[in-house]
Amino acid sequence: MLPRLLGISTVLLCVGCAVGGGGPLRAFYVAVNGLDGDPGTEAKPFRTLERARDAIRALKQADGLPRGGVTVFIRGGTYPLAKTFELT
Length: 88
Prior knowledge:
Elements: E1 4-8, E2 11-15, E3 26-30, H1 49-62, E4 70-74, E5 77-81
Parallel strand pairs: 3-4
Antiparallel strand pairs: 1-5, 2-4
């Protein structure tokens, strides 16, 4: 069986974004050379999409989503997936 791969050249995933709305924006970054133990910043991105998803879920549970939403910047590369990536 072939491994599942998610190839991304440039993708911007926006969760809870307000169109034309103000408010602070929270951002996380994902890169193939990142580490899931890092904070998900531009300088120290997460490695996996799952980790970014989980960070958003934790943020939502702790403080609620910020008014301006959460943006996940995904740097180009191939992201192997062990199972289907779900956003629920």
